[in-house]
Design brief:
The chain is α/β, with parallel strands linked by helices. The chain is built from 29 helices and 9 strands.
């Protein structure tokens, strides 16, 4: 697959953003052809392929998937795959040679201005060409259209699981994961099995059977997240009793229980139980026309975990921005590659168990109706009874039957008084959590740049955001400690409020540290000293776990670390390591020593290829060839035949003369109903104005074209205008989804001219 080479090219481009080598360094490696001028930055092969793909109409990965499906049905998959692989390979070699020349100039300290900008723009074009070629090179899976409302999808078996794992610990983790997957009724045992599988994989790291370990780790992490969101029951009978009980007091809990049963039945492949759970869920769901909007609203609300929760009251204009407003403004001001760090942070939260749910006590769901307990209150209620007293403190509630007997009744402690009672609220069942404080010691040396630095920052952001969310919800949480180090370690920072967590998140985005040399031993010694100094005044550090995040490009003085940890007395500090890029045998030996002594510790190594990604605007679910709500049936795909014929010409090395457009693409590019993708970056006001201007020009041009040609002419003109102004179809569709009066009016005029009858 050619896409694997993209990660290495991405790493090399990131390296060019760093400072060049010092003038006194050896420069024998800088000999060779360098970039002498703008002519050396020209990429004719890549430019030609990029122009051809634009004319074909392959603007997004969803478009490429549509043409791939049509090509497979026509028996052209092999021809298209070979041709596109050949042309993409030529473009990749051309781009790699250009990067090598720029690297020589950079190392010599004479890189031309603007060279990195040209390479970044060309990398986006190359990524599309390579990903299209790899998409067509994948084996086509047989798919049949099924209009049934209820489908149980079979979990595809991993090819690597046909053989025994190389490590017995991996086999144990797979056993726990399989037993949890097949366990539908006992939620408590399922949670324990998933937690055990996660712990085994965490301790095993990524050194054994990486091809089967990483997918299993993601599967277990997603399963743990789902199972922790449902009430804990042990049997189907207990679940039914819980649903009957909670349906009267907490309908949401009843819905979560039934939905959890439905999801577990799907996961285990139990069709009959899944059908029964779905039938039970149907009366609890709203009408079909409201369901879509509610799901989209729930997805948008889920983003509040990262971008701040909305508030009903508008703050005064002169007031300082609240922490959640600061985080929201930060999110919408970031570049796309920075915004993707939020997604990476969410993955890190699952992958490394940020919330540390292994320390969480499981509270069983309430399955029986408890008799309400009455209590006396000082205010009137609908329930009143009589009690006796012998004091005057309740004279206002005295019941006088015979005033002459008042003194005698008081003396005998039998004076009647009115007493109002009401049912006492049931005691709240809180989750008890044993704290597990983590101290992150993060490498900030010069080698921690690019994807390594993004992964490191995303891990800290996940921890900070988890603390921020718990603080805003009023839940109990532990403070977070972290520091950065290179050749000089920084002071250990303590974060214990939502406002401070928000400020630290913003600081990581604005100024991510990366300079100096790596000194792991000094960083660990500094962390030990900080914990020892703060032990008396901060009891949380008495149970701290130090997590070192580094690229491993340094030797570690193991004996020095042992001596440094020894005089800590009763304070036993556990060490865990996350190694990015390079392997470090010294850190691994420390983990073995801790595990031999019974201390929980993990060592996880991720290579540069595993932590890199080359996501561009091509990797988007937007369609530009067919509307999003049109199913990919044979009739719908046959309308894209001209696009497939043009792509066949491109694969054969023949350039297309003009852009290809079909009438079916009109509804995709000029949709009647605008849908906004949750989490998508909001376009700026300049882009909205430009899109409104483009639509206005299209409306005027469409009025001059013949009626039967207006739709296709509008598609062709739109593609041309987007290329002129440097807008991708994905950004154009995102601007349409945001809308606004000017955009909506211009879009309605285009639709009225091209689709006058709907």
């Amino acid at each position: 697959m050619l896409s694997r080479q993209l990660t290495e090219l991405r790493r090399r481009l990131d390296s060019l953003r760093e400072a060049p080598p010092s003038a006194g360094a050896r420069r024998w490696w800088s000999f060779g052809r360098k970039v002498a001028g703008p002519g050396d930055l020209a990429l004719p092969v890549l430019t030609s392929l990029h122009r051809d793909l634009d004319r074909v109409g392959v603007h997004t990965s969803a478009d490429a998937q549509l043409l791939r499906t049509l090509g497979a049905r026509r028996g052209l998959a092999g021809t298209l795959s070979q041709g596109l692989q050949s042309r993409a390979g030529q473009a990749l070699e051309e781009f790699e040679e250009c990067v090598a020349r720029v690297e020589r100039s950079w190392r010599a300290g004479a890189m031309p201005p603007g060279a990195l900008t040209v390479l970044e723009r060309a990398f986006v074009q190359l990524a599309r060409a390579v990903k299209v070629a790899d998409l067509f090179a994948r084996p086509q899976l047989d798919s049949t259209d099924d209009d049934e409302d209820f489908i149980v999808y079979e979990r595809p078996a991993m090819a690597q699981r046909h053989r025994a794992p190389t490590s017995a610990r991996m086999a144990v983790a797979e056993f726990f994961a399989l037993r949890a997957r097949l366990n539908v009724l006992d939620v408590v045992q399922k949670r324990r099995d998933l937690d055990l599988a996660h712990e085994m994989l965490l301790r095993l790291g990524a050194d054994h059977d990486r091809d089967r370990g990483l997918p299993l780790r993601r599967e277990v992490a997603e399963g743990r997240e789902r199972i922790r969101a449902v009430p804990a029951v042990r049997s189907l009978d207990e679940l039914m009793r819980h649903v009957r009980h909670s349906a009267r007091t907490d309908p949401r809990a009843a819905y979560r229980s039934l939905r959890g049963l439905y999801e577990r039945a799907l996961e285990a492949g139990d069709v009959e139980l899944a059908q029964a759970a779905r039938s039970a869920l149907a009366p609890l769901l709203p009408a079909q026309e409201r369901l879509t909007s509610l799901v989209e609203r729930a997805e948008r609300d889920a983003l509040s975990r990262w971008f701040g929760e909305p508030s009903g009251e508008a703050p005064p204009e002169a007031a300082a921005p609240r922490p959640e407003e600061l985080l929201t403004d930060l999110a919408f001001s970031l570049r796309p590659e920075q915004l993707s760090t939020f997604e990476l942070a969410e993955g890190c939260a699952r992958y490394f168990d940020v919330e540390d749910s292994l320390t969480e006590e499981i509270v069983l769901a309430e399955t029986r109706v408890s008799k309400p307990v009455s209590r006396r209150v000082p205010y009137p209620t609908q329930t009143m009874t009589f009690e006796t007293t012998g004091g005057l403190h309740e004279v206002n509630n005295f019941v006088l039957t015979d005033p002459r007997m008042l003194l005698r009744d008081l003396a005998a402690n039998r004076q009647l008084v009115r007493a109002y009672v009401e049912d006492a609220p049931p005691p709240e069942r809180k989750k008890v959590k044993r704290t597990a404080v983590r101290v992150y010691v993060c490498d900030a040396s010069g080698s921690m740049h690019g994807a390594r630095a993004r992964f490191r920052d995303a891990l800290i952001i996940a921890e900070l955001n988890n603390l921020r969310v718990k603080a805003r919800r009023g839940e109990v949480f532990d403070p977070l400690y972290f520091s950065f180090f290179n050749d000089v370690p920084t002071e250990l920072a303590r974060v214990d409020t939502a406002a401070e967590a928000t400020r630290q998140i913003e600081r990581l985005f604005r100024d991510s540290p990366a300079e100096g040399q790596t000194d792991i031993s000094l960083a660990l010694m500094s962390a030990f000293d900080s914990i020892r100094a703060a032990q008396g005044r901060d009891p949380y550090l008495a149970r701290a776990t130090v997590v070192l995040v580094t690229d491993g490009e340094d030797r570690v003085d193991v004996d020095l670390i042992r001596r440094t940890r020894a005089p800590m007395g009763s304070l036993d500090i556990a060490l865990s390591f996350i190694s990015l890029g390079e392997e470090n045998p010294d850190l691994r030996s420390l983990i073995r020593e801790q595990r031999a002594s019974g201390v929980r510790a993990f060592y996880h190594h991720l290579s540069d290829e595993e932590i890199q990604w080359a996501r561009t605007e091509f990797d988007t679910p937007w369609r530009t060839l067919l509307p999003r709500d049109v199913p990919t049936t044979s009739e719908a795909l046959e309308q894209l035949a001209p696009h497939l014929e043009a792509l066949e010409a491109v694969a054969g090395g023949r350039a297309t003369s003009a852009p290809v457009a079909v009438e079916a693409s009109f509804e995709a590019l000029f949709p009647e109903t605008l849908h906004r993708q949750p989490g998508a970056q909001s376009p700026g006001q300049d882009e909205l104005s430009r899109v409104a201007d483009i639509l206005g020009a299209l409306a005027e041009a469409a009025s001059l074209a013949p009626t039967d040609k207006r739709a296709t002419e509008s598609v062709v003109l739109l593609q041309h205008l987007l290329s002129v102004y440097g807008l991708t179809p994905a950004r154009y569709l995102a601007a349409l989804s945001v809308g606004g009066p000017s955009v909506e009016d211009a879009l309605s005029r285009v639709r009225l001219l091209c689709r006058p009858f709907g």
